[in-house]
Amino acid sequence: MEVYNPTSFEADIGSCPKEWESGPITLDMIDRIICHYVPSNEKGKITMNKLEQLYEGKAKKVFSTEDPDVVIVSYKDDATAFDGLKKGTITGKGAINNQMTNFLMQQLEKAGVPTHFVEELSERETAVKKVSIVPLEVIVRNVSAGSFAKHYGVEEGIVFDAPTIEFSYKNDDLHDPLINDYHAVALHLATWEEIDQIKKYAFQVNDFLKAELLACGVTLVDFKLEFGKTADGTIVLADEISPDTCRFWDAKTGEKLDKDRFRRDLGNVEGAYQEMSKRLMGK
Ligand code: UDP
Question: When you count CB atoms within 10 A of the terminal residue's CB, does the N or C end of the chain come out lower?
Fold first, then answer.
């Protein structure tokens, strides 16, 4: 084995794989650094490369990287609604959703909710932990709207005394039906422990987001979360938190600042996404 003896060479490679931290640095390792990692301007930071496309969804593409535990998510401007029946483009949405998700996830992480976030790579690309998605859409509501208002025959805008939570089974063929936790356990979609943990995190996210948004003059009506399991079985918040997955209403006027503008043909869709970006992130 050819071995490079690092007498004056210091490997400043930030998040290098564990096995590189001890033992000699081989020429093969250096080749992997040079060929696969492009160091960013920030000292100690590694920038990953997209290798193979693993998946393309309605709003995102997912790529493998050199690190088997990390994938790159690339946000698209494509928009769909009503189970994919309505299709369109919201220009600039991918960049806003990427940056808003990362902005919120980094704060949630600090507030004690583990997330899949690793590193923002560009306007619309982010490195995230590779997880297996728990096939449940977790919906938290503070105010009646959308399918809740329709199912239960009530008007939109009723403020609940306490937030509600519900699950949909993520299954395109079945059109994501509502499911309760007993059914989710019976179908082995998650264990009771995982469901308890997911509910705890979802309400924590609600408390954090509600306060954060209120400070920007926005009412958090409802939102959808997805959780994933890392290789060691840890439950982490995954997917996105954006105007695609939340209902945001201006706290004073009630103006809709989310994907309902697209779903309901209300106009100024791009403007609503930009307004949310400005209010939350100042850009
Ligand atoms: N939601 C989502 N993806 C879905 C369904 C819902 O992100 O596939 C979000 C939606 O944006 C809203 C919340 O979850 O913020 C509750 O949606 P609802 O059940 O009212 O369904 P909708 O009226 O959007 O069909």
Answer: N
